[in-house]
Amino acid sequence: MTDALHTSQFQQAIEVVEALPLEEQQLLLEIFLKRLQQQRRRQLLEEVQEIRQDVTEGTIKYGSAKDFLAELDD
Q1: What is the distance between the alpha carbons of residues 55 and 31, in angstroms, rounded to a whole number?
Q2: Which pTM does this prediction carry?
Q3: How many domains does the chain have?
Q4: What's the rounded Cα separation, in Å, for the pair 22 and 18?
């Protein structure tokens, strides 16, 4: 999707929301915030599961910040 098309669709969405009565705009905002929170929770759960799997598989490395920086230089 081109940036112009995306911007146009985004602008259209904003205009549709702004045309709603204030109460409906508030309700829509609350719904979106809850959905964003749910998506973030799911994302965090996936990240935690990946980390747990890495720990189980032994692919996690431990060390100090100095060790980390030294490894970056290699």
Answers
A1: 36
A2: 0.63
A3: 1
A4: 8
